[in-house]
Amino acid sequence: MNRPSVRGPLGTLSMLLSAALLAACGALNPSAPQAPQPPILSAPPAPAKARTGEVAVKVIAINDFHGNLMPPAGGIKLPDPQAPDKTITLDAGGAERMATVVAQIKAKNPNHVFVAAGDLVGASPLLSALFHDESTIESLGLMGLDLSSVGNHEFDQGIDELLRKQRGGCHPKDGCKGPTEFKGAKYQYLAASTIDTRTGQSVLPAYAIKRFDGVPVGFIGLSLKGTPELVSPTGIQGLRFDDEADTINRLVPELERQGVHAFVVLIHEGGYPTGGINDCPGISGPIVDIVKKLDKRVGLIVSGHTHQAYNCRIDGRLVTSSHRYGTLVTEIDLTLDRATGTLTQASANNVVVRPETAKDPRQTLLINSYQQVAQPLIERPVGFLGQALSKDGGDRNEGGGTTMGQLVADAMLAATRAPAAGGAQIAMTNIGGVRTGLIHREDDRVTFGDLFAALPFSNAIVVVEMNGARLQQVLEQQWQNNDAKWLPLQLSQGFSYRWDKRRPFGSRVVPGSMTLDGKPISPDQTLRVAINAFLQVGGDGFVALKDARFVQTGPVDVDVLEAYFKARGATRVQPTALDRAVRVDR
């Protein structure tokens, strides 16, 4: 068979798959490494007629899959073939069709490798998140994924949970909830820049070496340096996230000493392009500066994190990204010089996972086995919605509020307002914790699966106490890194303030503008505020919340939102006015 073998932790297929399907996937090795040793992969030798001075290689790449086993809502926007100045929305994606696309690309060249640039799991729909993303890890293993860098969302539940996902075993709290025992990822996670401060070593292998017809290629995988700003600090205690370019440049000579002269980087950091999915007339963002700092011997960078699609040349190197949620697969062609072992040519094409693509029957069997367990919960009705709610796009005003974010904050306040529930007067949530909006169905029905897609992290709601001065300090932390990042908090009804970007950084909130139920909030006024546990420990850079006095812990956010809908019975929930955070310089 053509699939390369991997020295590393390997998973299993569902027991519901037939013996014939197991045979088609090859023998599996359940052993897991006890130390982050670089895996060495091997492709089958090319036919004799192909043994020339060059070796052609296929690299198949994805990023930011986020557990979207089924086609994601919203698909992908593409130019309208009938009117190029307009766009159409294509219902692309889904593991069943993505697996077919991957197999078709593999069939073109026995020298192939399937890689990813992180965030394969985390912030996932219920079909994956209900099982701690074990269903997604099995699905990607069944597709033949070989290597992936570690994204920030792989750290959502902490380093111990990431290592369990790699090595296998039941969840320490919830046990094994899937149809079979979880044996861990068949692919190898790479984490070159994530350092255990006790040992000084990376928590997972820094790189892997794969040989194509005898020519070695080094694959370096790493997360973004800013990961600590995006995940709960409690889950990454004892870890250090080093500079991306410095890490890569340190490892290139190490790999060269092992006879490797061609280098590919899998990095969970990206950019913001202009143009279509397969061109790049302009790109900005962190990936540009990172690539420009890289050792010139690095010829291909597979990137992610920004959920964009691009096919770029930056500083003479090929840089790719395949959108998000499995809507695209990047097909990359490399040419290696057999004599020198160097990469001489690289080109790429982002392939749309189109809805008419045939479904891989093995993926269908695997997904069905998980759906049988999850479907009753996914389809459970929770209430009714009058019109769609969004977390961004047209529903986000200049002040930073969104209709979906405000709904979540209102639900949090309703759940914690009673004295016995904490006595909260205000609720706030981070925009990143609200992953999507709510679609509107013809029958106005809302399901638990809809709510879980919006709030997949299961963050507990916490009531804390602070004065008005501390609250204003929290609001100022929405503008971070001297305006390099804006993370608008979503506010509950009754609380409002005004802000002015013309004012100095750190003093954007207009003095005296904070009000509660129409009354000014004084600096020494004591307030009880409902937030989520991620914010309580300083997540997203809101470090001012770490010193707020703890009052009480409540239920998790998705249960709070379900209760909010159920309390309204047959009444349709409607979007609220975006007038809580008001920008005055526009």
Write up what this structure looks like.
The protein has 586 residues and is of the alpha/beta class. It has 2 domains: 59-369, 4-Layer Sandwich (Purple Acid Phosphatase, chain A, domain 2), CATH 3.60.21.10; 381-583, 5'-nucleotidase,  domain 2, CATH 3.90.780.10. It has 13 helices and 33 strands. Strands 1-9-10-12-15-17-16 form a 7-stranded mixed β-sheet, covered by helices on one side. A 6-stranded mixed β-sheet has the order 7-6-5-2-18-19, covered by helices on one side. A 5-stranded mixed β-sheet has the order 26-21-30-23-31. Strand 3 and strand 4 form a beta hairpin. The relative contact order is 0.12.
Keywords for this entry:
single chain, about 575 residues, alpha/beta, Purple Acid Phosphatase, chain A, domain 2, 7-stranded mixed sheet, 6-stranded mixed sheet, 13 helices, globular, disordered N terminus
